[in-house]
Amino acid sequence: MSAPSETDLVDLTNLIRQWSKALGFADLGICDLQLSHHKAAFTDWLAAGYHGSMSFLERNGELRFDPALLHPNTLRVISVRMDYLPHQARFAADLDDSQQAYISRYAVGRDYHKVMRKRLKQLGDKIEAYCQQHFSTPSATRPFVDSAPVLERPLAEKAGLGWVGKHSLLLNAEAGSWFFLGELMINLPLPTTQQSVTNQCGDCVACMKICPTGAIVKPYVVDANRCISYLTIEHDGAIDEALRPLMGNRIYGCDDCQLICPWNRQAEPTDEADYQHRAIWQQHDLLTLFSWTEQQFLDNTAGSPIRRIGFERWQRNLAIAIGNGPATEQAIDTLKAQRINATAMVVEHIDWSLAQLQQQQLASRKTARLVRAIRTGLPRDAD
């Protein structure tokens, strides 16, 4: 056996594409490790405080711009795309019903970290087994799925999988943005698929205009402190009162900037079983979800990315959503019942929601008195 020739590496790359397709990846690209030109923008973003409380982004800066430091002897990064848009996504139905919970569509199925990491590991195993059999140079691979300081979108863009849109997500002309990204680092000089993918956002600013909280502060720059996805998932403290009414019924993530994007009209639902709607997330009303005990939360979110936020944040998010909904007696009673055993942080949000609902009730009573006064000719404040 000998070291792989250029022809051998081309043949291996073709096999890698076949294997990745069989493993459920929709697309694959290969790039080198040069990312230094992204450093200034990332540093400026951190300096502006747009990362919120995600202090981990401040650490391991050099690793982000030199993937070889994460996996010694790495020469290439294999970037993969896996589509996740479920059939019957129910976007409009869930957003329009203020008594139903809205959950980002990436989270209604199985945790993508587990799915993608397992399959990337399988892809790496196939590559290593092939190289062991055919070449004297052993192959070494390492998979990454949101598990280390990896600049996945710049790598995917560099590998030719799409372009970064104004909402900071990767866009693909055929698939929109409804997909996950993962990386497999490898110590072989595989031929790259690097190409200059034209940014096709043009003058469109639909994503910036529709963001409920104005989190896209300028093209390609997102202030996490205002982003509903960050607030409901990553942020572990109290949520700014000024932002609570803007969150509506979104209890885990937000898809608005993707929903409005013209490129997502091209996206087709995936047949991947792991990403289809779990039965537990089909038409669940806010009050039912808020009534769960911590054990019910753990049981019902097993294998789901939702479990990672923990019970306290789950209750916080639901309390806000209920406060943004109709002021029914059932809603008020449910909030009061859950308040008894809630943490101090959750109690703060429950009290805010109760105040919101009570203001709604007061406004309704005033309106009713006004209507009655008009109809009867009595003073407006008469009983």
TrEMBL record:
Binding, [4Fe-4S] cluster 1: C201, C204, C207, C261
Domain of life: Bacteria
InterPro entries assigned: 4Fe4S_Fe-S-bd (IPR017896), 4Fe4S_Fe_S_CS (IPR017900), QueG (IPR004453), QueG_DUF1730 (IPR013542)
Keywords: 4Fe-4S, Cobalamin, Cobalt, Cytoplasm, Iron, Iron-sulfur, Metal-binding, Oxidoreductase, Queuosine biosynthesis, tRNA processing
Top-level EC class as recorded in UniProt: oxidoreductase
Segments crossing the lipid bilayer: none
UniProt subcellular location: Cytoplasm
Protein name: Epoxyqueuosine reductase
Organism: Neiella holothuriorum
Gene symbol of the encoding locus: queG
